[in-house]
Design a protein that fits this description.
The longest helix has 41 residues. The N and C termini lie far apart (60 Å). The protein is 76% helix and 0% strand. It is mainly alpha-helical. It has one domain. The chain is built from 16 helices and no strands.
Length: 396
């Protein structure tokens, strides 16, 4: 259960706490969860350790950005639906504004020739490689799950389709259900949540209604804005693993229609590593390049709306589901498939678009070493790679 204080403005309190995290939480979703634990569990004591672990487990299972969903959940526990919105705004707004400014500045440059922008594409190689390494060690640590990851990567590369990835995730979950059985599910206390089951059911109906209905509306009533909203909503609904796993699905949605070039896409992805907060705010950069601040708002709302609906729909039922061993088995298979999808993304589009010369490769492995061995913050690695890319363009 959450521990409430005597604050007269719980919504403002939630907004202030999440804004602090949004300004300081560098390092990706795993690091975000550590920041959240320190702020909400240790310092503010808004919830206990076991309840926090429960929320993390739930949000890692749901599609979408896990760290943002944990923050939204804590906001809902603290202040209802308005608390969830306040928590999301505080955590998301700093990086969203930074990436919008970057996108506007980018319009004055030739992204195909700017050396520092090529450096941002190269840093994406190091960041995604680090994510693959870390996730493989924790999510595919044995022969069976490692094989799932490798097969998923192979099929993803040979069948580059967002729907193909969804089928692979479902198949891996089904395999996990029958072949990765577990009998131990730790007991955890009840999570306090004021959302009713009726509201939760409405959230599920709205989620699936939009997920199924938007593509149909897009086919019957062709519209640029409807297509944009549908594409970003679908990515936010179907990406398991969050963070870097969003890369291949977003690339498949925005590059083939001609909304962005590969160079623009990867330059923005590199810049997204330099800002704190959720990586899903990459959608703001994409929307801004596509159609200014209006495109940014539509992309951002469409990208995160599934998270609100999924969290609202799942929290009231989580106590019953989390104790079932079958759930843990399905999750094992899904997580292994996520590693495979990320491994495929490391090759295409990240490696293929960024590494062209030995100089590029040297810069990539230098950035990887600074991340993995020296543990430097990602924003500093981004600056290092941008400078390295500029020097390569001048002297090579």
């Amino acid at each position: 259960m959450t521990q409430r204080t005597n604050s007269n403005s719980p919504i403002l309190e939630i907004l202030g706490a999440s804004a602090k995290l949004g300004l300081t939480s560098f390092g990706g979703p795993i690091a975000h969860l550590s920041y959240f634990r320190d702020e909400y569990v240790n310092r503010r004591k808004w919830l206990d350790e076991k309840s926090y672990a429960d929320l993390v487990a739930l949000c890692q299972f749901l599609p979408g950005p896990a760290s943002s969903q944990v923050g939204i959940s804590i906001g809902m526990m603290r202040g209802g639906l308005l608390g969830g919105i306040a928590s999301w705004i505080g955590f998301t707004l700093p990086s969203a504004l930074a990436l919008m400014i970057f996108a506007y500045a980018l319009k004055n440059y030739d992204v195909g020739n700017a050396g520092w922008l090529h450096g941002l594409m190269i840093v994406a190689v190091a960041v995604v490689a680090q994510a693959v390494w870390g996730m493989a060690r924790s999510l595919a640590p044995d022969r069976t799950r490692g094989t799932i990851a490798i097969l998923t990567a192979v099929v993803t590369l040979l069948w580059p389709s967002a729907y193909g990835q969804l089928i692979l995730i479902a198949a891996a979950g089904l395999f996990g259900r029958f072949f990765l059985a577990t009998s131990e599910v730790p007991e955890t206390p009840r999570i306090g949540i004021s959302i009713s089951r009726r509201a939760a059911m409405f959230a599920w109906i709205l989620f699936f209604g939009l997920l199924i209905g938007l593509p149909l509306l897009r086919a019957v009533f062709p519209s640029y804005w409807l297509a944009v909203f549908d594409s970003f909503f679908r990515v936010g609904s179907l990406v398991f693993g969050g963070g870097h796993v969003v890369l291949p699905m977003l690339q498949a949605e925005v590059v083939p229609p001609g909304w962005l070039t590969d160079s623009q896409f990867l330059a923005g992805y590199g810049a997204a590593q330099a800002v704190p907060g959720p990586l899903f705010t990459f959608s703001v950069y994409l929307g801004t390049v596509m159609h200014g601040w209006i495109g940014a708002m539509i992309a951002l709302i469409a990208m995160f709306l599934p998270s609100f609906l999924l969290v609202t729909g799942a929290l009231p039922f989580w106590d019953a589901v989390r104790r079932r061993p079958n759930f843990q088995s399905v999750l094992k298979g899904i997580n292994a498939a996520v590693v495979g999808i990320l491994l495929a993304a490391l090759f295409n589009p990240v490696w293929m678009k960024a590494i062209h010369t030995p100089y590029d490769f040297c810069l990539a492995i230098a950035a990887f070493g600074l991340l993995m061995l020296w543990k430097l913050p990602p924003w500093l690695i981004v600056l290092f790679s941008a400078a390295g890319g500029y020097l390569i363009s001048v002297f090579s």
